[in-house]
């Protein structure tokens, strides 16, 4: 009997998935979130658990692709104009946080007896918060689009960019004997600027025609492959010139934020992002060295307390200084007090450059991981306090603006019918997002100033990326009856709170839509036919009040006929087509005596 062949990494994959599906539901039930569950799963199967993985760093490089894809998706949600409006938070608040936190933590490290070089690397490295951890928490809680969520994101974005000068600082501080390969500063700057410029140019001018060509070729798999290629390719290019891979993916995402394909790209990337992010946190959990913590527990506990308290206080104070309310400043403070994944990069580089002893780097890495584990406790505690204050009636006053209260509408299908619907809504300032699956129609609508995105009406993930969860009303204006039925079933399941308005192609389709329970349906030619008939009666000399009577009667008989057809079939109520509208007054229609 032939020996069974097990594919490479098959057993490892089973173990990782098993640990995740056990640990994550438990931590979510405890209110700690999925991230803590992934970290706990990693600790359980790592060297200090069941010891299934003895070298977690082997898969850390692959797992870090989750951070790359996360930043690509975040970039897709931020148009360049919107990013420009965040410049104060990014370059003002973000820079102040890194410098002040770095200074305080450097002085703290020197108090622990470290040399100024080691203290500087440790302090600046710990000043960086975890982009992956914080954004994952904000997304889980639905807070990324809030004011404090956007402010926290601005700080994180600056921290991601700060890793570049921090790595340069390692080169400056490195002993002359350390072999770390120094390139000409001028050449390095030109290379970096050229790489960033290429990503921006390609994102703005080349990618939309590229995706338009792919959609014409058909095939969802091709679009998924292209989305991964763009995200990972831009990340790889940035890595080659010494920048953060995550920053490269973010830049390409921002450049595609105004593209018609952003929502489909986001939906295609999301499953890979979620899976790889989970793997990243599992790997971080594996890397926690419990014996090192036990041997140096006093130092590590003191460092964790110093790090979280000092960063939290500085984040609160700076957020208040930059205009945040007290509650928003507190939320920023409890979201970003932890160390970050880029600290691992900085510490390992400093170790290779003979600045940071390996044992010290391991202790600092343990501090970072422990702060990640403790951060959700702070957010849960703040939520409990906020809930208690709410019950007592001590809620903060919030000014409601029309923009906050304004309902949003998702229009699916943007031909002549959908465009007129959009015109009616936007004329009253209603927020509209439009989807269509025909590139030529999207380009045509954009010529008239409408923002229309590429998307499939039958894919809930695309509709969700386009804002389906927050839509007050979803208008299906597509022509294909079969596709519309599939879309209705998907929307009713995924977004039960949204009102569903549909365009019917004919009377039979209107009956089908009624049976499906849509909130409103109308035949595409019904109103125009009545208007046409009115004009014909006007030309034939009928007075306006009589024309009103005829129109009202025709509408009434049409509704009655539709009700009869629902039960009796297509021919039911046919007699109502030929009835005359009664007249009132001396010339009223009366049966002969």
From TrEMBL:
Pfam families: Na_H_Exchanger, TrkA_N. The keyword Membrane applies. GO terms for biological process: proton transmembrane transport. This is Glutathione-regulated potassium-efflux system protein KefC. Keywords: Antiport, Cell membrane, Ion transport, Membrane, Potassium, Potassium transport, Transmembrane, Transmembrane helix, Transport. The chain crosses the membrane at residues 6-24, 31-53, 59-78, 90-112, 118-138, 150-173, 185-207, 228-252, 272-292, 299-318, 363-385. Residues 573-593 have a biased composition (Basic and acidic residues). GO terms for cellular component: endomembrane system; plasma membrane. Belongs to the monovalent cation:proton antiporter 2 (CPA2) transporter (TC 2.A.37) family. It is found in: Endomembrane system. The keyword Acetylation does not apply. GO terms for molecular function: antiporter activity; potassium ion transmembrane transporter activity. Residues 406-522 form the RCK N-terminal domain. Its main location: membrane. Residues 561-593 are annotated as: Disordered. It is a multi-pass membrane protein. InterPro entries: Cation/H_exchanger_TM, K/H_exchanger, K_uptake_TrkA, Na+/solute_symporter_sf, NAD(P)-bd_dom_sf, RCK_N.
